[in-house]
Protein backbone atom coordinates (compact mmCIF):
# COMPACT_ATOMS: atom_id res chain seq x y z
CA UNK A 1 0.00 0.00 0.00
CA UNK A 2 1.31 3.37 -0.94
CA UNK A 3 1.82 5.68 2.01
CA UNK A 4 2.41 2.97 4.61
CA UNK A 5 5.40 4.12 6.64
CA UNK A 6 7.18 2.29 9.43
CA UNK A 7 9.38 4.18 11.85
CA UNK A 8 8.82 6.71 14.60
CA UNK A 9 6.84 9.88 15.19
CA UNK A 10 9.95 11.78 14.12
CA UNK A 11 9.02 10.94 10.50
CA UNK A 12 5.80 12.98 10.77
CA UNK A 13 7.14 16.40 9.73
CA UNK A 14 8.55 15.13 6.44
CA UNK A 15 5.48 12.97 5.71
CA UNK A 16 3.12 15.90 6.34
CA UNK A 17 5.32 18.38 4.49
CA UNK A 18 5.09 16.31 1.29
CA UNK A 19 1.30 16.75 1.21
CA UNK A 20 1.56 20.56 1.52
CA UNK A 21 -1.71 20.84 3.49
CA UNK A 22 -3.26 24.27 4.05
CA UNK A 23 -3.76 23.31 7.66
CA UNK A 24 -3.39 20.30 9.92
CA UNK A 25 -5.95 19.10 12.47
CA UNK A 26 -5.18 16.18 14.76
CA UNK A 27 -8.16 14.10 15.84
CA UNK A 28 -7.48 12.14 19.01
CA UNK A 29 -9.02 11.07 22.31
CA UNK A 30 -8.49 12.10 25.93
CA UNK A 31 -6.10 9.21 26.66
CA UNK A 32 -3.83 9.92 23.72
CA UNK A 33 -4.04 13.64 24.51
CA UNK A 34 -2.31 12.86 27.78
CA UNK A 35 0.27 10.49 26.30
CA UNK A 36 1.29 11.44 22.77
CA UNK A 37 -0.53 14.54 21.49
CA UNK A 38 2.07 16.96 22.89
CA UNK A 39 4.87 15.22 21.03
CA UNK A 40 2.87 15.10 17.78
CA UNK A 41 1.95 18.79 17.94
CA UNK A 42 5.52 19.70 18.73
CA UNK A 43 6.48 17.93 15.51
CA UNK A 44 3.77 19.14 13.10
CA UNK A 45 1.98 22.02 14.82
CA UNK A 46 -1.65 22.42 13.84
CA UNK A 47 -4.76 22.27 15.97
CA UNK A 48 -6.30 19.38 17.90
CA UNK A 49 -9.81 18.02 18.31
CA UNK A 50 -10.09 15.73 21.33
CA UNK A 51 -13.00 13.32 21.69
CA UNK A 52 -13.84 11.19 24.73
CA UNK A 53 -12.26 7.73 24.92
CA UNK A 54 -14.35 4.63 24.21
CA UNK A 55 -16.06 2.54 21.54
CA UNK A 56 -19.40 4.13 22.52
CA UNK A 57 -18.16 7.40 21.03
CA UNK A 58 -17.62 5.83 17.61
CA UNK A 59 -20.97 7.12 16.46
CA UNK A 60 -22.59 9.67 14.19
CA UNK A 61 -23.07 12.24 16.96
CA UNK A 62 -19.31 12.42 17.44
CA UNK A 63 -18.78 12.80 13.71
CA UNK A 64 -21.36 15.62 13.66
CA UNK A 65 -19.53 17.42 16.48
CA UNK A 66 -16.23 17.10 14.66
CA UNK A 67 -17.73 18.20 11.30
CA UNK A 68 -19.05 21.30 13.11
CA UNK A 69 -15.64 22.09 14.57
CA UNK A 70 -13.97 21.62 11.18
CA UNK A 71 -16.39 24.05 9.52
CA UNK A 72 -15.75 26.59 12.30
CA UNK A 73 -11.99 26.20 11.83
CA UNK A 74 -12.25 26.81 8.08
CA UNK A 75 -11.03 23.29 7.30
CA UNK A 76 -11.10 22.56 3.55
CA UNK A 77 -10.35 19.68 1.20
CA UNK A 78 -6.78 20.90 1.03
CA UNK A 79 -6.47 20.49 4.80
CA UNK A 80 -5.15 17.36 6.47
CA UNK A 81 -6.95 15.43 9.19
CA UNK A 82 -4.62 13.18 11.20
CA UNK A 83 -6.20 10.43 13.30
CA UNK A 84 -3.99 9.69 16.33
CA UNK A 85 -5.21 6.74 18.37
CA UNK A 86 -6.51 3.18 18.37
CA UNK A 87 -9.02 1.71 15.96
CA UNK A 88 -11.87 3.81 17.30
CA UNK A 89 -10.09 7.05 16.42
CA UNK A 90 -8.71 5.80 13.10
CA UNK A 91 -12.14 4.50 11.99
CA UNK A 92 -13.76 7.81 12.94
CA UNK A 93 -11.04 9.96 11.41
CA UNK A 94 -11.37 7.99 8.17
CA UNK A 95 -15.13 8.33 8.17
CA UNK A 96 -15.00 12.07 8.86
CA UNK A 97 -12.28 12.76 6.29
CA UNK A 98 -14.02 10.71 3.61
CA UNK A 99 -17.32 12.54 4.00
CA UNK A 100 -16.33 16.13 4.83
CA UNK A 101 -16.57 18.14 1.60
CA UNK A 102 -16.58 14.78 -0.25
CA UNK A 103 -13.17 13.91 1.03
CA UNK A 104 -10.19 15.69 2.57
CA UNK A 105 -6.59 14.66 3.06
CA UNK A 106 -6.21 11.98 5.71
CA UNK A 107 -3.28 10.63 7.70
CA UNK A 108 -3.43 7.92 10.34
CA UNK A 109 -1.09 7.36 13.27
CA UNK A 110 -2.39 4.15 14.87
CA UNK A 111 -1.31 3.73 18.49
CA UNK A 112 -2.67 0.31 19.51
CA UNK A 113 -1.25 -2.98 18.29
CA UNK A 114 -4.67 -3.81 16.88
CA UNK A 115 -4.83 -0.58 14.91
CA UNK A 116 -1.23 -0.91 13.68
CA UNK A 117 -1.71 -4.42 12.26
CA UNK A 118 -5.39 -4.20 11.37
CA UNK A 119 -7.77 -1.27 11.88
CA UNK A 120 -5.66 1.46 10.25
CA UNK A 121 -4.74 -0.71 7.27
CA UNK A 122 -7.03 -1.25 4.32
CA UNK A 123 -9.24 1.81 4.04
CA UNK A 124 -12.37 0.69 5.86
CA UNK A 125 -13.88 3.50 7.92
CA UNK A 126 -17.01 3.64 9.97
CA UNK A 127 -19.21 4.37 12.93
CA UNK A 128 -21.55 2.16 14.91
CA UNK A 129 -25.23 2.70 14.10
CA UNK A 130 -27.80 0.14 15.27
CA UNK A 131 -24.97 -2.35 15.00
CA UNK A 132 -21.19 -2.38 14.73
CA UNK A 133 -19.74 -0.43 11.80
CA UNK A 134 -23.13 -0.17 10.06
CA UNK A 135 -22.36 3.20 8.48
CA UNK A 136 -19.03 3.76 6.81
CA UNK A 137 -16.96 4.14 3.68
CA UNK A 138 -13.95 2.72 1.91
CA UNK A 139 -11.37 5.51 1.84
CA UNK A 140 -7.62 5.18 1.57
CA UNK A 141 -5.56 7.56 3.69
CA UNK A 142 -2.71 9.60 2.21
CA UNK A 143 -0.42 8.03 4.78
CA UNK A 144 -0.40 5.59 7.67
CA UNK A 145 2.57 6.09 9.97
CA UNK A 146 3.30 3.14 12.22
CA UNK A 147 5.38 4.61 15.04
CA UNK A 148 6.57 1.75 17.18
CA UNK A 149 7.33 3.86 20.27
CA UNK A 150 3.63 4.61 20.77
CA UNK A 151 3.09 0.98 21.82
CA UNK A 152 5.32 1.57 24.86
CA UNK A 153 2.41 3.09 26.79
CA UNK A 154 -0.16 0.49 25.77
CA UNK A 155 -1.66 -1.48 28.69
CA UNK A 156 -1.06 -5.26 28.69
CA UNK A 157 -4.68 -6.12 28.00
CA UNK A 158 -4.65 -3.98 24.85
CA UNK A 159 -1.47 -5.72 23.69
CA UNK A 160 -3.24 -9.04 24.19
CA UNK A 161 -6.18 -7.73 22.19
CA UNK A 162 -3.90 -7.04 19.23
CA UNK A 163 -2.10 -10.36 19.58
CA UNK A 164 -5.32 -12.15 18.59
CA UNK A 165 -4.97 -10.65 15.10
CA UNK A 166 -1.23 -11.34 15.05
CA UNK A 167 -1.96 -15.02 15.78
CA UNK A 168 -4.43 -14.96 12.88
CA UNK A 169 -1.76 -13.62 10.50
CA UNK A 170 0.63 -16.32 11.71
CA UNK A 171 -1.82 -18.98 10.52
CA UNK A 172 -2.37 -17.15 7.22
CA UNK A 173 1.29 -16.61 6.41
CA UNK A 174 4.20 -18.98 6.95
CA UNK A 175 6.76 -16.19 7.29
CA UNK A 176 4.84 -14.61 10.15
CA UNK A 177 4.38 -18.03 11.78
CA UNK A 178 8.16 -18.50 11.65
CA UNK A 179 8.81 -15.06 13.18
CA UNK A 180 6.29 -15.62 15.94
CA UNK A 181 7.85 -18.94 16.86
CA UNK A 182 11.26 -17.37 17.13
CA UNK A 183 10.23 -14.18 18.93
CA UNK A 184 7.18 -14.42 21.09
CA UNK A 185 7.40 -10.62 21.68
CA UNK A 186 6.09 -7.76 19.57
CA UNK A 187 9.05 -6.42 17.60
CA UNK A 188 8.80 -3.63 15.01
CA UNK A 189 9.63 -6.25 12.34
CA UNK A 190 6.68 -8.38 13.35
CA UNK A 191 4.27 -5.42 13.34
CA UNK A 192 5.62 -4.47 9.93
CA UNK A 193 5.20 -7.95 8.48
CA UNK A 194 1.59 -8.17 9.72
CA UNK A 195 0.66 -4.72 8.45
CA UNK A 196 2.27 -5.37 5.06
CA UNK A 197 0.49 -8.70 4.78
CA UNK A 198 -2.90 -7.12 5.40
CA UNK A 199 -2.10 -4.27 3.01
CA UNK A 200 -1.21 -6.75 0.28
CA UNK A 201 -4.35 -8.83 0.71
CA UNK A 202 -6.47 -5.67 0.67
CA UNK A 203 -4.72 -4.33 -2.41
CA UNK A 204 -5.76 -7.45 -4.31
CA UNK A 205 -9.39 -7.10 -3.19
CA UNK A 206 -10.21 -3.62 -1.94
CA UNK A 207 -14.00 -4.02 -1.81
CA UNK A 208 -13.94 -7.46 -0.17
CA UNK A 209 -15.33 -9.47 -3.08
CA UNK A 210 -12.99 -12.42 -2.66
CA UNK A 211 -9.50 -12.75 -1.27
CA UNK A 212 -9.95 -10.19 1.53
CA UNK A 213 -12.31 -12.66 3.16
CA UNK A 214 -9.40 -14.80 4.34
CA UNK A 215 -8.80 -12.03 6.89
CA UNK A 216 -11.97 -13.27 8.58
CA UNK A 217 -10.13 -16.38 9.81
CA UNK A 218 -11.41 -17.08 13.33
CA UNK A 219 -14.02 -14.33 13.05
CA UNK A 220 -17.14 -16.42 12.33
CA UNK A 221 -16.91 -17.81 15.85
CA UNK A 222 -15.37 -14.67 17.35
CA UNK A 223 -18.35 -12.48 16.41
CA UNK A 224 -20.77 -15.00 17.95
CA UNK A 225 -18.69 -15.19 21.14
CA UNK A 226 -18.45 -11.41 21.46
CA UNK A 227 -22.22 -11.10 21.05
CA UNK A 228 -23.02 -13.91 23.51
CA UNK A 229 -20.72 -12.34 26.09
CA UNK A 230 -22.42 -8.96 25.59
CA UNK A 231 -19.04 -7.70 24.40
CA UNK A 232 -17.41 -8.43 27.77
CA UNK A 233 -14.99 -10.75 25.99
CA UNK A 234 -12.69 -8.47 24.01
CA UNK A 235 -12.34 -8.88 20.26
CA UNK A 236 -8.76 -10.18 20.31
CA UNK A 237 -9.56 -12.85 22.88
CA UNK A 238 -12.66 -13.89 20.95
CA UNK A 239 -10.54 -14.12 17.81
CA UNK A 240 -8.13 -16.43 19.66
CA UNK A 241 -11.02 -18.69 20.66
CA UNK A 242 -12.34 -18.54 17.10
CA UNK A 243 -8.92 -19.44 15.67
CA UNK A 244 -8.89 -22.54 17.81
CA UNK A 245 -12.33 -23.55 16.50
CA UNK A 246 -11.27 -22.93 12.89
CA UNK A 247 -8.13 -24.97 13.54
CA UNK A 248 -10.23 -27.89 14.76
CA UNK A 249 -12.52 -27.62 11.73
CA UNK A 250 -9.38 -27.72 9.54
CA UNK A 251 -8.13 -30.71 11.49
CA UNK A 252 -11.34 -32.67 10.92
CA UNK A 253 -11.70 -31.79 7.26
CA UNK A 254 -8.09 -31.60 6.04
CA UNK A 255 -5.85 -33.07 8.74
CA UNK A 256 -4.56 -29.60 9.77
CA UNK A 257 -2.45 -29.76 12.93
CA UNK A 258 -4.57 -27.74 15.40
CA UNK A 259 -1.82 -28.21 17.99
CA UNK A 260 0.22 -25.56 16.12
CA UNK A 261 -2.44 -22.93 16.77
CA UNK A 262 -2.86 -24.00 20.38
CA UNK A 263 0.89 -23.69 20.97
CA UNK A 264 0.96 -20.25 19.45
CA UNK A 265 -2.00 -18.97 21.48
CA UNK A 266 -0.44 -20.38 24.66
CA UNK A 267 2.84 -18.63 23.89
CA UNK A 268 0.94 -15.33 23.51
CA UNK A 269 -1.02 -15.91 26.72
CA UNK A 270 -4.27 -15.98 24.74
CA UNK A 271 -7.20 -18.26 25.56
CA UNK A 272 -7.69 -21.51 23.61
CA UNK A 273 -11.06 -22.38 25.12
CA UNK A 274 -14.42 -20.60 24.89
CA UNK A 275 -17.01 -20.47 27.69
CA UNK A 276 -20.21 -21.27 25.74
CA UNK A 277 -22.20 -24.27 24.61
CA UNK A 278 -21.78 -25.40 21.02
CA UNK A 279 -25.52 -25.07 20.32
CA UNK A 280 -25.67 -21.47 21.55
CA UNK A 281 -22.73 -20.43 19.40
CA UNK A 282 -24.12 -22.09 16.27
CA UNK A 283 -27.45 -20.35 16.81
CA UNK A 284 -25.68 -17.00 17.16
CA UNK A 285 -23.57 -17.67 14.04
CA UNK A 286 -26.69 -18.34 12.00
CA UNK A 287 -28.18 -15.04 13.23
CA UNK A 288 -25.20 -13.14 11.86
CA UNK A 289 -27.15 -12.60 8.65
CA UNK A 290 -25.15 -9.57 7.66
CA UNK A 291 -22.13 -11.75 7.06
CA UNK A 292 -23.34 -15.06 5.66
CA UNK A 293 -27.17 -15.09 5.41
CA UNK A 294 -27.46 -17.69 8.13
CA UNK A 295 -24.96 -20.14 6.68
CA UNK A 296 -21.97 -21.48 8.59
CA UNK A 297 -19.17 -20.12 6.44
CA UNK A 298 -15.61 -20.56 7.72
CA UNK A 299 -12.13 -19.68 6.67
CA UNK A 300 -10.62 -23.15 7.03
CA UNK A 301 -6.88 -23.77 7.43
CA UNK A 302 -5.48 -26.74 5.54
CA UNK A 303 -1.94 -25.89 6.59
CA UNK A 304 -0.02 -22.88 7.90
CA UNK A 305 -0.17 -20.40 5.01
CA UNK A 306 -2.95 -22.24 3.20
CA UNK A 307 -6.60 -21.45 3.87
CA UNK A 308 -9.82 -21.27 1.91
CA UNK A 309 -13.41 -20.16 2.49
CA UNK A 310 -16.16 -22.75 2.58
CA UNK A 311 -19.55 -23.55 4.03
CA UNK A 312 -19.06 -26.13 6.78
CA UNK A 313 -21.62 -28.68 7.94
CA UNK A 314 -23.21 -28.10 11.35
CA UNK A 315 -21.95 -31.44 12.67
CA UNK A 316 -18.32 -30.52 12.02
CA UNK A 317 -18.75 -27.06 13.53
CA UNK A 318 -20.43 -28.44 16.64
CA UNK A 319 -17.73 -31.03 17.12
CA UNK A 320 -15.00 -28.37 16.85
CA UNK A 321 -16.89 -26.16 19.31
CA UNK A 322 -17.30 -28.99 21.79
CA UNK A 323 -13.61 -29.84 21.64
CA UNK A 324 -12.64 -26.24 22.37
CA UNK A 325 -15.14 -25.51 25.16
N1 LIG B 1 -11.36 -0.40 9.84
C1 LIG B 1 -11.00 -1.65 10.04
O1 LIG B 1 -10.63 -2.36 9.10
C2 LIG B 1 -11.01 -2.20 11.42
C3 LIG B 1 -10.42 -3.44 11.68
C4 LIG B 1 -10.41 -3.91 12.99
C5 LIG B 1 -10.98 -3.15 14.00
N2 LIG B 1 -11.56 -1.96 13.72
C6 LIG B 1 -12.17 -1.14 14.78
O2 LIG B 1 -11.17 -0.80 15.71
C7 LIG B 1 -11.79 -0.55 16.97
C8 LIG B 1 -10.97 -1.21 18.06
O3 LIG B 1 -9.66 -0.66 18.04
P1 LIG B 1 -8.70 -0.73 19.30
O4 LIG B 1 -8.65 -2.12 19.78
O5 LIG B 1 -7.46 -0.03 18.92
O6 LIG B 1 -9.53 0.06 20.41
P2 LIG B 1 -9.47 1.58 20.94
O7 LIG B 1 -9.27 2.51 19.84
O8 LIG B 1 -10.68 1.73 21.78
O9 LIG B 1 -8.18 1.57 21.88
C9 LIG B 1 -8.16 0.78 23.03
C10 LIG B 1 -7.79 1.61 24.27
O10 LIG B 1 -6.39 1.89 24.25
C11 LIG B 1 -6.17 3.29 24.42
N3 LIG B 1 -4.92 3.59 23.74
C12 LIG B 1 -4.72 3.72 22.41
N4 LIG B 1 -3.43 3.87 22.14
C13 LIG B 1 -2.78 3.88 23.31
C14 LIG B 1 -1.42 4.01 23.68
N5 LIG B 1 -0.46 4.10 22.77
N6 LIG B 1 -1.12 3.97 25.00
C15 LIG B 1 -2.09 3.80 25.93
N7 LIG B 1 -3.38 3.67 25.65
C16 LIG B 1 -3.72 3.71 24.35
C17 LIG B 1 -7.40 3.91 23.84
O11 LIG B 1 -7.58 5.22 24.31
C18 LIG B 1 -8.48 2.95 24.34
O12 LIG B 1 -8.82 3.23 25.66
C19 LIG B 1 -13.20 -1.07 16.87
O13 LIG B 1 -14.09 0.00 16.79
C20 LIG B 1 -13.21 -1.86 15.57
O14 LIG B 1 -14.46 -1.85 14.93
C21 LIG B 1 -11.58 -1.48 12.45
From TrEMBL:
<dbReference type="Pfam" id="PF24621">
    <property type="entry name" value="DHQS_C"/>
</dbReference>
<keyword id="KW-0170">Cobalt</keyword>
<dbReference type="GO" id="GO:0000166">
    <property type="term" value="F:nucleotide binding"/>
</dbReference>
<dbReference type="InterPro" id="IPR056179">
    <property type="entry name" value="DHQS_C"/>
</dbReference>
<feature type="domain" description="3-dehydroquinate synthase C-terminal">
    <location>
        <begin position="162"/>
        <end position="291"/>
    </location>
</feature>
<dbReference type="InterPro" id="IPR030960">
    <property type="entry name" value="DHQS/DOIS_N"/>
</dbReference>
<dbReference type="GO" id="GO:0046872">
    <property type="term" value="F:metal ion binding"/>
</dbReference>
<dbReference type="Pfam" id="PF01761">
    <property type="entry name" value="DHQ_synthase"/>
</dbReference>
<dbReference type="GO" id="GO:0003856">
    <property type="term" value="F:3-dehydroquinate synthase activity"/>
</dbReference>
<keyword id="KW-0479">Metal-binding</keyword>
<dbReference type="GO" id="GO:0009073">
    <property type="term" value="P:aromatic amino acid family biosynthetic process"/>
</dbReference>
<keyword id="KW-0520">NAD</keyword>
<keyword id="KW-0456">Lyase</keyword>
<dbReference type="InterPro" id="IPR030963">
    <property type="entry name" value="DHQ_synth_fam"/>
</dbReference>
<feature type="domain" description="3-dehydroquinate synthase N-terminal">
    <location>
        <begin position="49"/>
        <end position="159"/>
    </location>
</feature>
<keyword id="KW-0862">Zinc</keyword>
<protein>
    <submittedName>
        <fullName>3-dehydroquinate synthetase</fullName>
    </submittedName>
</protein>
<dbReference type="InterPro" id="IPR050071">
    <property type="entry name" value="Dehydroquinate_synthase"/>
</dbReference>
<keyword id="KW-0547">Nucleotide-binding</keyword>
Amino acid sequence: MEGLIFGSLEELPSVVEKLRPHRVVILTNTTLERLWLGKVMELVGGEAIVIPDGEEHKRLETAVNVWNMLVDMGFTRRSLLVGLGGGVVTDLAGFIASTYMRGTMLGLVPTTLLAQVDAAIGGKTGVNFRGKNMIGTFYLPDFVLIAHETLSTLPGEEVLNGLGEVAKYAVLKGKIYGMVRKFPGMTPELVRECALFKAKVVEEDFMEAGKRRILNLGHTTAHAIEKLSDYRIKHGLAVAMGLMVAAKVGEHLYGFDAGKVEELLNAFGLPTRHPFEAGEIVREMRLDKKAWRGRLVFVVPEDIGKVHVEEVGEEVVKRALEETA
